[in-house]
Amino acid sequence: MTVIKTRFAPSPTGFLHIGGARTALFSWLYARKSAGQFVLRIEDTDQERSTQASVDAILEGMQWLNLAADEGPYYQTQRFDRYHEINAQLLHQNHAYHCYCSKERLETLRTEQMANKQKPRYDGLCRDRTDVPAGIAPVIRFRNPQSGEVVVNDLIRGEVIFGNDELDDLIIARSDGTPTYNLTVVVDDMDMGITHVIRGDDHLNNTPRQMNILRALGATLPAYAHLPMILGADGSRLSKRHGAVSVMQYEQDGYLPEALLNYLVRLGWSHGDQEVFSIDEMIALFDVTHVNKAAAAFNPEKLLWLNQHYLKTLPAEDIAQRLALYLQRIDVNTASGPAVVDVVLALRERSKTLVEMAASARYFYQDFSDYEEAAAKHLNAAALEPLRAIRNALAELSTGDAWQKESIHVAIQQTAEKLQVGMGKVAQPLRAAVTGQGASPSIDLTLYLIGAPHSLARLDRTIATLQQA
Ligand code: GLU
Predict the structure, then answer these.
(1) Mutate to test the pocket of ligand 1, among 6, 7, 8, 11 (most ligand atoms within 8 A of CB)
(2) What is the pTM of this model?
(3) Catalytic one among 33, 103, 240, 302?
(4) How crowded is the C-beta side of 12, counted as CA atoms within 13 Å?
């Protein structure tokens, strides 16, 4: 039985973007689902546009998304000998020929064809040429069949038919001998035993050319699935204008890879009206033949919703490990203060991203000098008496292990009763004084996590400031 093999074949000319990540995910899922192999291939033959920084960015993105390859990364620049060998074979078998036409001739031809409202294409002048003009480094062209049709049985789009008369004799090696994209893809898909080519539909027009070359090489043809493009909310092709498109920008912004993968899998694919898919469910349920033909629209709110869902539902220890990194990034030292996992449990119902959670977690570990506006408005002359009273009540709890959520709650309640005010009249200035924020998790839990020494010191400082005012 043939082993199912898919590949992700990015050109390293930029970061890993949302569209690329979805192609990678669908290819990866298809391999996982079929107990097959997933190949990563870096298509770096365009040496002017490819950079090591892009290779690193792509690998980093793949790693963050946890889309591990079973084979590779292969680099096309390391396979030039093989491409030369295949070009020589194609020439030898008369499936390819040298073309000596000058740039000027091709340019004139093109202008003429355009003027005659014809589709610009090579006219085949060198197709049957037998002489070898001196002093010209030729390109190599593939001898495309001149008649008949190429039928692409696309797994998503169904039958797509191309007439051979629409296809050029395309250049497979430049005059400096370097192979071109369509040749390298074909050789690699053949050599690597790729059974399913899953890629963006911007490549659909290349497919009949690639199939013709594969046939000339006597190779087994892979199945093809061309994914519809991704649109921004305004209906135009997804681009930087629509916000972050780099996968690692989502990491920077505090998204979980679980959320992004879940989001990506729904871009063009669905299973009933289910929205939340664990990786195992995706593997079990994904089917490339059920991908929608129509373009998928990118919806940032849905991604945010999924992110919050995973923040709330993944094991707290797991979130804590990731949060620690985001806290480090904003210079919050967690060596002393509450366990990060407890902070996660306190904050995860109220945070949409890890960046937001880290920002909210700051006051658990650091004193602050400014009160946010929503806090400052509770800190006026009327707050002084409740703050003094609760400060004294809390001070009673500062020794031994009396500092507990329940005892803090009782202290607030009793203080409010004593002053004959509602609990909010005590709790709101208390929260403002101790966190500097207008909102926080429940006040008793918040104080408990901050601990007695920092809570009391912050209360003292606020009281002192209010007294001076
Ligand atoms: N290297 C091509 C790209 O990044 C993909 C080629 C393919 O999937 O066949 O667009």
Answers:
(1) 11
(2) 0.93
(3) 240
(4) 26
